Amino acid sequence: AKQRGRNNVQFYTADLQARMSRLMELENALRTAIDRHELALHYQPQWALVGQRLTGFEVLLRWQHPVLGQVSPAEFIPVAESSGQIGQIGEWVLQQGVAQLARWRAQGFTSITLAINLSAAQFRRTDLATQVADLLLHHQVPPERLEMELTEGTAMEDPMQARQQLTSLHRLGVRLAIDDFGTGFSSLAQLRHFPVDTLKIDRSFVQDIDVDQGSADMVRSIIQMAHNLGISTLAEGVETARQLSLLERLECEAIQGYLWGRPLTCADAQKLLINQSKA
Ligand code: C2E
Ligand code: CA
Ligand code: CA
Ligand code: CA
Q1: What's the CA gap between 92 and 50, in Å, rounded?
Q2: ipTM given for this complex
Q3: For the chain, which terminal residue's Cβ has fewer other Cβ atoms within 10 angstroms, N or C?
Q4: The pLDDT value given to residue 16
Q5: What pLDDT score does 1 carry?
Q6: Whose Cα sits closest to atom 32 in ligand 1?
Q7: 84 CA distance to ligand 3 centroid (A)?
Q8: Mean pLDDT in runs of 10 for the chain (279 residues)?
Q9: d(CA 236, CA 257)
Q10: How does DSSP assign 87-147, residue by residue?
Q11: Start and end of every EAL domain (predicted)?
Q12: Does the CB atom of residue 178 touch ligand 1 within 6 A?
């Protein structure tokens, strides 16, 4: 037993070392990612269920490194958060996203909304609203064409601060969405004080609604609660027609998911816009 215990410690240490060196490798490589043009924005379609209409896209960051290959944002965003690089990266995403939205608007696609993810560190910055206002003005984009997503977890870290920040963004006229809703512990009472437009129901509930009554009940009550507060709902990660028809029955307003569209390159998103305008 003693021998095994020692081996376990060795395994654990080796594993920990591997993970540490991966983190340091990512942190170092991230430093030059923007300058070396390794980051790109992808665009996942968002659809209104009524009329099956394309309403816009969520911006999803992609990182293609020459040696490390494609690194998932689920892996590198937390690294950027803890190393302090997220400020620069988040700003870059906002700039690139709004600039692309302006180009699409110039091509006549003026009714779409672009949703951009905000990290916790970005959301804490006191100059965020000013930064966003300057950007919109510079690109002549009406504020209601931009939606900012923050996760339920970020919003609940410091609900008082969140309320202030959301209020200044809301005053600008940008749309606000709570991302990954259902995974945190926010109460109805807290949500009532947030000027949010959309609740994005987390994929973990959506993926089980057609097989698990508990998930279906959860989604039903989130939608009802949102509607009572005058908030609209979007279901994330919709992959099957059955999930879709259940969501329709529950009067969910919008969806996003592989069923109707994976994240697209900029060129493919543009093709979709052109096709939709002909339909
Ligand atoms: P998220 O904001 O919840 O984004 C949705 C994730 O679900 C995306 O993963 C998307 O590709 C994936 N997805 C969408 N539909 C489906 C589906 O039908 N099935 C499945 N299995 N997955 C689906 P992705 O692109 O890997 O991003 C992961 C997370 O990384 C995002 O989760 C978000 O938290 C973060 N992230 C991505 N881009 C940014 C960014 O620009 N800024 C910040 N702060 N975070 C970002
Ligand atoms: Ca999101
Ligand atoms: Ca989400
Ligand atoms: Ca998520």
Answers
A1: 34
A2: 0.98
A3: N
A4: 86
A5: 47
A6: 74
A7: 22
A8: 60 82 95 96 98 97 97 96 94 97 98 97 94 98 98 90 95 96 76 92 94 92 93 97 96 98 98 92
A9: 6
A10: HHHHHHHHHHHHHHHHHHHHTT--S-EEEEE--HHHHH-TTHHHHHHHHHHHHT--GGGEE
A11: 23-277
A12: no
Find out whether the beta carbon of 94 lies less than 6 Å from any atom of ligand 1: no
Residue whose Cα lies nearest atom 45 of ligand 1: it is 117
Q: How far is the CA of 60 from the centre of ligand 1 (A)?
A: 6
Confirm or reject: Cβ of 61 under 6 Å from ligand 1: yes
pLDDT at 188: 67
Grouping H, G, I as helix, E, B as strand and the rest as coil, residue 61 is strand
Give the predicted TM-score (pTM) of the model: 0.94
Query: Partners of 177 in the beta sheet?
Result: 149, 198
Q: Residue 107 has which token pair?
A: 């091509």
Residue 5 CB neighbour total at 10 angstroms:
9
* Atom 36 (ligand 1) nearest CA: 73
* Total count of residues recorded for the chain: 279
Closest CA to 58 of 198, 209, 221, 256: 256
- List Cβ<8 Å contacts ≥24 apart for 1-5: none
Residue 147 Cβ < 6 Å to ligand 1: no
Assess whether the C-beta atom of 177 lies below 6 angstroms from ligand 1: no
- For ligand 1, atom 28, which residue shows the shortest CA distance? 74
pLDDT value of position 39? 98
Ligand 1 proximity of 239 Cβ (cutoff 6 Å): yes
Which element (helix H / strand E) includes 80?
helix 73-83
